[in-house]
Amino acid sequence: MILAQLDAPEILCLQETRIRTRDSEDVASMQAAIPGYRCHFSLNRDARNVTYRGGRAYGVATYVRESLGPATMEVPEWDLEGRVVLTHLRGCVVGNIYAVNGSDKPYFDHERGMLSGDRHAFKRRFQERVIHRARELRASAPVILAGDWNVSPTKLDTYPRLRTAEPHVKARTALADLLARSGMVDIYRQLHPEERRYTWFSRRARLGQLDAARVDYILVSEDLVSRVRSATILDDPRYRAGSDHAPTVLELSLT
């Protein structure tokens, strides 16, 4: 269904798979779900911070056409919640991102072996680590980072209004500062500087009222901008049946 609606893309990035690493049958089914595609994934393995839904939370999966040639998978050691998978292809690296949605819940830092701030602070650390890794990778190949960032960049990206209270301002400012130094471009906004389109739609909105935001976006390294053909948001309800998010699509040429 998804492949048919999206015209069988060469790369498909999915977030929030809700499969645990120990769910072996589900993992096998996920890997074999789309014939002709390789499945690269990162799943939640943090039993300390993620206990709801029986630990079946988060998780990202990237499906890559086998015809694209050799592809290798990278999951950062620090990604315990299943939020980042990097696919190394000939000519570029594609990152599938499901960023942290901050909250005031305490966060247990496994590297330090102790509670360290809340999930708002963890959200900012996550952003920094993802962008830092992208900067490292750009030294050898163009980079694409696609997914749910859980941050609306500007007032153009939310309706009815942009959140102006903390900690939302801090998260937005931190990500903007990171991107300004990263050499990564929010390609939808680059191509559509004044357009108001959204990728997340609240299920709690009253009938006929809009409560929405653009929190899903694709970042491309500056050296790829000239190769981009289009960047679109498929916000028609038929493309988001069963989800409160709309697909974002990038078309570019690497040849």
From TrEMBL:
Highest taxon in the source lineage: Bacteria
SUPFAM superfamilies membership: DNase I-like (SSF56219)
Domain Endonuclease/exonuclease/phosphatase: start-end pairs: 4-245
Keyword line: Hydrolase, Magnesium, Metal-binding
Needed cofactors: Mg(2+)
InterPro entries with a match to the protein in the record: AP_endonuc_1 (IPR004808), Endo/exonu/phosph_ase_sf (IPR036691), Endo/exonuclease/phosphatase (IPR005135)
Family (UniProt): Belongs to the DNA repair enzymes AP/ExoA family.
PANTHER family named among the record's database cross-references: AP ENDONUCLEASE, DNA-(APURINIC OR APYRIMIDINIC SITE) ENDONUCLEASE 2
Protein name as it appears in the record: Exodeoxyribonuclease III
